[in-house]
Design goal:
Number of strands: 10
Distance between the termini: 75 Å
Strand content: 5-15%
Strand order of the largest sheet: 6-7-8-3-9-10
CATH class of the largest domain: Alpha Beta
Structural class: alpha/beta
Length: 598
């Protein structure tokens, strides 16, 4: 049993992967492929009675068919005359049957490819939506984007070519079956010749697979560079560095295209060698059969028809398999990526949180990044509608602490409790649906203002009322109404046409539209000028007492009115108090105040 498992893992792992994706649909594909081969085989066999008629004054006894003479006998048993009209009608019947089977098979393959890529994309999205945030922040963004876009397409092409290779293999077996049935000796010789050709392709297969892996790796790098190129375009443009960075991209493009050319060259070699190899094998076998073994040419010609088809299918199989290998690097990467994100799936409880009713609490919480302790023995209780600010030097752990409170990161030890319920028992998505999250880099979608705030809710009267209410609370309604298209105004990529303050207000309005319980503000005003910061701060202060607000602040002037301030240092809570209490009791907080000249 273990040997069988090892054999499957080594030689049939791709087939097993596709079977897991398609299940019973694989068997339907196989059945249709066999049906095409059988109908074609019977149709080809009917050519031989026609040749007999040429040499026997319009009559045929089926002797040239070898063991397939039952076809002629079957015609006679039906009471039909074996004449030109009968043979042609039966031949037409078989080839029409082949055509119908081929159409159904090709259509079904197209449906399978559609199902495969649709199922694959949904699997990736569903699994990726559940990965741990801790895993995401350490991931290669270029690899993620390349895998979920380009690599999925290449995996689809890999499936198409693999499925075609399977069908060609089935055709080979069907034709070989016919050929062996007619003349086993001739069939054996051609089988040996076909096997020899397969060794000629082995080296090309290996090189193609290696080139495919290199192509995939280089594509990951290029996608990552493109993401950085677009994200940092303003800086690169303003500092005349676009061409410097573009040279990096050009170098990556050249490397990718060299890999692509290598794959194309190997494919061209296979395609060019196909027909000559086929003719050489057939010619050599006919000479051996007739000159050395003294066989009759009649059955040979029937077998030859089947073997020509078999060898043609074999070479098509080899070409399809090589094209599959061209995309195999993408498929392997995709499989690895699926397994990786499945392993990094976040565990979720069953308890649902409809709303924050009482408090958030951390008890003896510690969190590590690899071997580095980021949070150490944190104890903190936050009451509903309390405004809590987190301050500290860079690297003190304040943002990580807020990430824990947002449910983004499970703790390594200790516990987080929401209304007294352990986080591990909670369906964390139901809790996070009650959160609003605002950062110093507001999220703006390239869409209308209404869709940016409502997140694509139906544009009806009720949602319009909620929309305008959220705009008013965020002090952005006047700006929206001044726009020529009002709430239908399309914001550019990343809100390129908005000021920093306008972006931030749109972001705040979105979170208020969601009817949240907890508002998280991670240095939400640190990137703004003083006047805009003050206006945004006034908007935030107006929300005090209506929401549970968690604020990570660099500018201490923005947290004067917080109910409590948590001072952090090196992953520890150093002290907790009001703004004025901490000035008197916390040397670290007092030092920060003096540095900012407050």
């Amino acid at each position: 049993m273990e040997l069988l498992k090892q054999f499957v893992e080594k030689y049939l792992n791709t087939l097993v992967y596709f079977y897991k994706q398609l299940r019973y649909r694989m068997f339907i594909m196989i059945f249709l492929g066999i049906a095409v081969g059988i109908m074609d085989g019977f149709g080809l066999a009917m050519f031989m009675p026609l040749l007999e008629m040429v040499n026997s004054a319009g009559q045929a006894d089926g002797s040239s068919l070898g063991n397939l003479d039952f076809l002629v006998q079957g015609i006679k048993n039906l009471g039909l005359s074996v004449n030109l009209s009968t043979v042609l009608i039966i031949m037409i019947f078989f080839f029409i049957g082949k055509g119908i089977a081929k159409f159904i098979s090709s259509l079904y393959n197209a449906m399978l490819r559609k199902y495969f890529i649709n199922n694959l994309r949904n699997q990736l999205l569903n699994t990726f939506n559940q990965i741990k945030y801790k895993y995401f922040v350490k991931s290669d963004v270029g690899r993620i984007q390349n895998t979920m876009s380009v690599e999925v397409e290449r995996a689809s092409a890999a499936f198409y070519n693999y499925a075609n290779a399977i069908q060609q293999a089935l055709m080979v077996m069907v034709y070989m079956g016919f050929a062996f049935f007619v003349d086993i000796r001739f069939a054996l010789l051609v089988t040996i010749g076909g096997g020899v050709t397969n060794f000629l392709y082995k080296s090309i297969y290996k090189k193609t697979k290696g080139a495919s892996k290199t192509f995939t790796k280089d594509s990951h790098l290029y996608q990552g560079q493109i993401i950085q190129y677009v994200a940092n375009f303003k800086y690169l443009k303003a500092t005349a560095l676009l061409n410097v960075y573009a040279n990096r991209l050009r170098n990556s493009i050249q490397i990718i295209e060299q890999s692509r050319f290598k794959i194309g060259k190997l494919s061209a070699l296979l395609e060019a060698a196909r027909e000559p190899i086929l003719i050489v094998v057939v010619a050599v076998v006919i000479l051996i059969q007739t000159k050395l073994l003294g066989a009759s040419l009649g059955p040979i010609l029937v077998s030859l028809l089947f073997f020509y088809r078999a060898l043609s299918s074999l070479l098509n199989l080899q070409n399809s398999y090589n094209r599959f290998l061209e995309q195999s690097g993408s498929l392997e990467n995709l499989v690895d990526f699926q397994q990786e994100i499945k392993y990094e799936k976040e565990r979720n409880g069953l308890q649902k949180i409809e709303a924050l009713k009482a408090s958030l609490e951390l008890i003896n919480v510690s969190l590590n990044y690899d071997t580095v302790t980021v949070l150490n023995n944190i104890n903190l209780k936050i009451e509903k509608n309390e405004t809590i600010a987190f301050v500290g030097e860079s690297g003190s752990g304040k943002t990580t602490l807020v990430n824990v409170l947002a449910g983004l990161m499970p703790v390594d030890s200790g516990g987080m409790f929401i209304d007294g319920i352990n986080r591990n028992e909670i369906n964390i998505h139901t809790y996070q649906s009650r959160l609003g999250y605002i950062t110093q880099d507001p999220v703006i979608f390239s869409d209308t203002i209404f869709n940016n705030v409502s997140l694509w809710a139906e544009n009806n009267a009720e949602n319009q009322m909620r929309f305008k209410k959220a705009l008013s609370k965020a002090s952005i309604i006047d700006f929206v109404e001044e726009q020529p298209n009002g709430s239908d105004t399309v914001l550019g990529n990343d809100g390129v046409n908005l000021s920093g303050g306008q972006k931030q207000r749109i972001s705040i309005a979105r979170e208020l539209y969601k009817n949240t319980d907890v508002l998280i503000m991670d240095e939400a005003t640190s990137a703004l000028d003083s006047e805009t910061e003050k206006a945004i701060q006034n908007s935030i202060d107006a929300l005090k007492g209506k929401y549970t607000m968690l604020m990570v602040a660099h500018r201490l002037s923005t947290i004067r009115n917080a109910d409590r301030i948590v001072v952090m240092s090196k992953g520890n809570i150093q002290q907790i108090g009001t703004f004025h209490q901490l000035i008197d009791t916390s040397p670290l907080f007092n030092k920060m105040i003096q540095l900012q000249e407050l």
